[in-house]
Amino acid sequence: MMKVRFWGTRGSIATPGQSTMRYGGNTSCVEVRCGNELLVFDAGTGIRDLGNQLLKEFPTDPMTVHVFVSHTHWDHIQGFPFFLPAYQPKNTIHLYGPPGRDKSFDKILKIQMDSDYFPVELGAMRAKLHVHEIREDIKLGSLEIKHFYLNHPALCLSYRVNDGTRSFVYATDNEPYQGTLFHNTQLATAATDFPTYLDEKFVEFMTGADLLVGEAQYTNEEYPEKRGWGHSPLESVVRFAVQANVKKFALFHHDPQHDDDFVDGMVRDAKNIAMHFKGTTECIGAKEGLEIVLA
Ligand SMILES: [Zn+2]
Ligand SMILES: [Zn+2]
Predict the structure, then answer these.
(1) Cα 150 from chain centre
(2) Which ligand has the nearest atom to the CA of 73?
(3) What is the pLDDT of residues 226-282, one digit of tens each?
(4) Cα 72 to averaged position of ligand 1 atoms, centre (Å)
(5) How much distance in Å is there from the Cα of 29 to the middle of ligand 2?
(6) Distance, CA 62 to ligand 1 centroid (Å)?
(7) Contact 46, 28 (CB under 8 A)
């Protein structure tokens, strides 16, 4: 059994308030449990509440947590300094992620907790912290965690967890290559099918997933204004999910400008788009607190 729980579903910046109560205001954080393994995808502000829950679950026993960071934009790491299990010496925390453009993954995490930005240094975290820059696929017991580079204005990773029977894909902060490269005329004339090829590789990576937690930041109407920002119009993510034969697609990384009613509308649109492409992918909206069991 694989159990997935959403602790933060928002993109870009935390958005607390009445209008985001149902889908949630915390930024990206998803917990995945499988056997004894405890995996976390991204350390946005949602990881604070997850940490509090873990303190209750492991009051005296040590815990080992594997945190997979997609990339180091604020909305994906800002909660980590508030992840209380990292301050307890009995615990072990593994952090996995990509390097930055000119800094190591480790250094970026340290900079976030530099005294100019935060009162406590990374070194003050008393848990055994192991920082790994992702170079190859990871094996954790019977789990295999593969990665794939996305199209985003930072090195950004998608992850796929396979346990032999079930699979989970976490893919946020991605823009279709067809949306960016086709708009560079030089590249478009040089190799018109190259962006399509790259998008196909992404579809291949997701193929057959039981659950895709995938970004759905913009509507088709909003997208042209935000081209190049590293996010997708709804039509393309649903199309990719259908092409990949994904069983369930949870719309994730909700735009801060989208209130609950708006996200409801996007979920309805996603279902219609999936039908239009004759897909069987079930589309839902990722909500803070929602738990999905892949049995
Ligand atoms: Zn983001
Ligand atoms: Zn980002």
Answers:
(1) 11
(2) 2
(3) 999 999 999 999 999 999 999 999 999 999 999 999 999 999 999 999 999 999 999
(4) 9
(5) 13
(6) 31
(7) yes
CA distances from 202 to 163, 223, 241, 248 (A): 20, 20, 10, 17
Rounded to the nearest whole angstrom, what is the distance from the C-alpha of residue 280 to the centroid of ligand 2?
29
Q: Is 3.30.70.120 the CATH number for 2-294? A: no
Domain ranges of the chain: 2-294
CA-nearest of 212, 225, 256 to 75 is 256
The confidence score (pLDDT) of residue 192 equals 66
Q: Which residues contact 84 (CB under 8 A, 6 or more apart)?
A: 48, 51, 52, 55
pLDDT given at position 195? 82
DSSP 178-224: HHHGGGSHHHHHH-TTHHHHHHHHHHHHHTT-SEEEEE--B-TTTGG
Distances 204 to 212, 232, 272 between C-alpha atoms, Å: 13, 18, 23
> Residue 89 Cα, ligand 1 centroid: separation in angstroms?
30
CA 104 to chain centre: 20
* Rg, Å, the chain Cα set: 19
Query: Which residue is it, tokens 């072990």?
Result: 92
Residues 6+ apart with CB under 8 A from 294: 1, 2, 3, 4, 166, 168, 210, 211
Question: Whole-angstrom Cα distance, residue 11 to residue 14?
Answer: 7
Tokens (6 digits) for 149: 């580079």
pLDDT above 90 coverage of the chain, percent: 93
CA distances, 230 to each of 16, 75, 172 (Å): 24, 14, 10
At 69-115, the pLDDT tens digits run: 999 999 999 999 999 999 999 999 999 999 999 999 999 999 999 99
Using alpha carbons, list the distances in angstroms from residue 285 to 156, 214, 252: 22, 10, 7
